[in-house]
Specification:
Radius of gyration: 21 Å
Order of helices and strands: HHEEHEHEHHEEHEHEHEHEHEHHEHEHEH
Helix content: 40-55%
Strand content: 5-15%
Shape: globular
Number of strands: 14
Bound molecules: FE3-S4 cluster
Largest sheet: 5 strands, parallel
Number of helices: 16
Distance between the termini: 64 Å
Structural class: alpha/beta
Low-confidence stretches: none
Length: 414
């Protein structure tokens, strides 16, 4: 039996407007389907239906109609990448798509969203505390929120994240409940781990096995960085539909193995070592050619420390004339990187900082055709996965050091 507060009832009576009533009705319908007995207040939302490539004209019309009807977002709500970069660079959109993207971003802004256009909202101020409920869409950010921040979110979709942002609540079910946050699969990591790509490879391997379970990693160093956990989050959610993981001795709900599994027995255990890593790297590399055409870094969006690393690797060097090197990030992080001098270093080397979007959210196939390229080189397992399936490009996958070396030389294995 659904428990409603007095405030919920007033919303259902239409006292706070028709849009809010409809948004609450959507949440209550889903509550019945997912067997939730109540709603839980949220601290923030993250909305992923923010690119014209992802939502199409129908999605734009849906958001515009809500904005015109007076929809108001009542919690801090950030937005995912859009299909146009901050600079309005030509990324393959036609004029109608570009106009629709503008209308979509404006409508989200009119409703009260912070249109930061980033898949790393936790790097630009949307950073919920441990134990706090939120309604986030964007698979990589969901995993990061649950696992690294210790916040609580289900895998929201565009419409439910918006409805939750308007109502200020979400379903009290799934990862909002303690019992669903227990680990399921134990992963023994049997090799030294260092660098973001190593963690992306691990995540891609484990995500394909654990599917929608909660992996618990044993054997990772306590020195694992936030950037490495960001890459692990993205890859887990790409190969599987993971919403949460634990790292014993590192993440907030996994001080011990016992706590990570909440006293339960794992449903299984797997090993990860050099053989599994090599097989995963091979699976993510489909390009048979050493010729390097388009190198993309920043999936998920680059952090300040990643900018510092890229600047150190590119200082005094020049990207090969036949290569495009993109760095995708949020405007907020790029502003900080500019203050510290990193953006000048990477741009002087010939890299292009492409803010607020990424190759998956632009008109990627059109763009690649216009640039006459057939391959994409990346340090991200998630981007390598989508390069082939969504962009029709042959991925080459490796570390940031290998990617930048290839960008400078114009070929892999230089
Ligand atoms: Fe972000 Fe685009 Fe990767 S949205 S996680 S940079 S595919």
């Amino acid at each position: 039996m659904m428990q409603l507060t007095d405030d919920d009832r007033r919303i259902l009576d239409g006292e706070q407007g028709e849009v809010k009533r409809k948004a609450l009705e959507l949440l209550l319908t889903l509550a019945r389907i997912y067997d939730a007995d109540s709603l839980v207040p949220i601290d923030s939302a993250h909305i992923n239906g923010a690119s014209i490539v992802a939502v199409g004209e129908t999605g734009v019309g849906f958001v515009e109609d809500m904005a015109s009807d007076g929809a108001t977002i009542v919690v801090p709500a950030t937005t995912n990448p859009k299909s146009l970069p901050f600079t309005d660079k030509d990324v393959g959109l036609d004029a109608a798509q570009a106009a629709a993207q503008g209308r979509l971003s404006q409508a989200l802004g009119r409703m009260g969203a912070q249109v930061c256009s980033s898949c790393t909202p936790y790097l630009v101020g949307n950073t919920p505390g441990r134990g706090r409920s939120v309604a986030w869409a964007e698979s990589s950010a969901i995993v990061y929120a649950n696992s690294v921040l210790g916040a609580r979110t289900n895998r929201e979709g565009g419409p439910t994240a918006i409805a939750s942002a308007i109502v200020g609540k979400t379903l009290r079910t799934g990862y909002h409940l303690d019992e669903n946050r227990a680990g399921t699969l134990l992963v023994h990591v049997r090799q030294p781990m260092s660098g973001t790509t190593a963690y992306g490879t691990l995540g891609y391997f484990v995500g394909g096995i654990v599917k929608d379970g909660v992996p618990v990693f044993e054997g990772l160093p306590a020195s694992v960085t936030m950037d490495e956990l960001k890459m692990l989050s993205a890859a887990l959610a790409t190969a599987g539909s993971v919403a949460m993981f634990h790292v014993i001795g590192v993440t907030p709900e996994a001080a011990t193995r016992e706590l990570a599994f909440r006293g339960r027995k794992p449903t299984g255990a797997i090993e990860y070592g050099p053989l599994e890593e090599a097989a995963t790297v091979a699976a993510l590399t489909r390009s048979g050619s050493d010729k390097t055409e388009w190198v993309t870094l920043g999936c998920p969006h680059f952090s300040l420390t990643e900018f510092a690393h890229a600047a150190a690797l590119l200082a005094g060097r020049k990207v090969h004339g036949d290569v495009m090197l993109w760095i995708n990030s949020s405007t907020g992080v790029v502003r900080q990187a500019a203050k510290l001098g990193y953006t000048k270093v990477v741009e002087d080397a010939g890299a292009e900082i492409v803010c607020e979007t990424c190759p998956v959210h632009i008109a990627g196939r059109v763009y690649a055709r216009r640039q006459n390229i057939t391959s994409l080189t990346t340090n991200s397992a998630k981007m390598a996965h989508y390069a082939f399936g969504q962009l029709g490009l042959y991925p080459r996958y490796g570390t940031i050091e290998e990617c930048i070396r290839a960008a400078i030389a114009g070929r892999w294995n230089a």
